[in-house]
Amino acid sequence: MADLSQIVKAYDVRGVVPDQWDESLAELFGAAFAQVTGASAIVVGHDMRPSSPGLSRAFARGAAARGVDVTEIGLCSTDQLYFASGQLGLPGAMFTASHNPAQYNGIKMCRAGAAPVGQDTGLAEIRTLVEGWAEGGAPEAAATPGKVTGRDVLADYATHLRSLVDLGAIRRLKVVVDAGNGMGGHTVPTVLDGLPVDLVPMYFELDGTFPNHEANPLDPKNLVDLQDKVRETGADIGLAFDGDADRCFVVDERGEPVSPSAITALVAARELAKHPGGTIIHNLITSWSVPEVVAENGGKAVRTRVGHSFIKQEMARTGAIFGGEHSAHYYFRDFWNADTGMLAALHVLAALGGQDGTLSDLVRQYDRYAASGEINSTVADQADRTAAVRAAYENLPDVELDELDGLTVTTPDWWFNLRASNTEPLLRLNVEARDAATVERLRDEVLAIVRA
């Protein structure tokens, strides 16, 4: 039997196909998902990876065998699956491994209305059922199997997104989009169709072997082609989507990356203009500029742990209108509290096209501090190295420490966060300060302790 501890993560399933899991296991996951959600119907979609259609069909078979009707929406982005879950009021399953290499695949699952399925909200129960069946039992078949039907929701998804952002009056923009051979190549043409946008497409051919570069814009090397094309064409903006197109990264007219924290602040200001006094969620490694901009625009900022499930839980608990993570996940109350990079991109286009200046000028008001970006260190003992860092800083003057997620050390002029990976022997460091020299000094000090 496959070792499910290796593929069932904090809020999804992800591993190498067929070495770690395959269609027979996907069928069991479908049956377990049907049982745990208790739904009479579900919706299923998949990305462009070679293994995705087969895994998706197997999952649908497993659910249908338990008497559950299945709506298959076929090729889609993850946020398109969330749209279907929200619009149809059905639990959903998306077959994708997001930005991971081609040999990987996985499942992102949600309850009706795109509500998250994580370790404490059904995933642990699903794993237990699958493990039991894989060891020799079998799911009990329903007397009447469910029906499996197809449905295309792409046009409805695009219409919904465009109903949330007014792009009718913007000036014409030249926009380069790097889809990375991922699902952005499927969604972007429909979403942007008819808008005052001159689209320059890059790698829109759906190809889950990723022949041009990995579909992971968080790694700077995967932005190089987009940066070059923006400069070459004199574009106003560049957009890069990850493999399942739920995250969007932005490049300005100079080809320089725009911090996801600056995008979070920009979108927060726009959402607060629509919903005065609203709550904005941000994780603890986003820039100081985010809560500052939220306060300046009359909103309430709430700081959370890093991670999809934590953001969604806080969105639901607080009734927040928007949430942003430094990994370029953006969550909207108007999108069932789910993350959609496409909607964030439309907000940026609306803000840019609604004034005459450049994107770099526009975001300067939202990008106020120097930052290190996330730096990973492989360590033998995460707790020991974190304790050593704490000991080095806890007695300094004007220092505040908290352990909401890892260790955060804050002074009036700088902060850093050091947190452990849940899946790898890594410590992740983020540093921010009022100037670049302080960032470099702190970065080097902390890394010297971590890597000692």
From TrEMBL:
GO BP terms: carbohydrate metabolic process
Keywords: Isomerase, Magnesium, Metal-binding, Phosphoprotein
A single MF term (Gene Ontology): metal ion binding
Keyword set includes Magnesium: yes
Originating species: Streptomyces cinnamoneus
Domain Alpha-D-phosphohexomutase C-terminal, residue spans: 374-447
Domain Alpha-D-phosphohexomutase alpha/beta/alpha intervals: 6-131, 156-255, 263-369
Cofactor(s) annotated in UniProt: Mg(2+)
Identification of the protein by name: Phosphomannomutase/phosphoglucomutase
InterPro entries: A-D-PHexomutase_a/b/a-I, A-D-PHexomutase_a/b/a-I/II/III, A-D-PHexomutase_a/b/a-II, A-D-PHexomutase_a/b/a-III, A-D-PHexomutase_C, A-D-PHexomutase_C_sf, Alpha-D-phosphohexomutase_SF
Gene3D superfamilies the UniProt entry points to: Alpha-D-Glucose-1,6-Bisphosphate, subunit A, domain 3 (3.40.120.10), Alpha-D-phosphohexomutase, C-terminal domain (3.30.310.50)
Classification of source organism: Bacteria, Bacillati, Actinomycetota, Actinomycetes, Kitasatosporales
Family: Belongs to the phosphohexose mutase family.
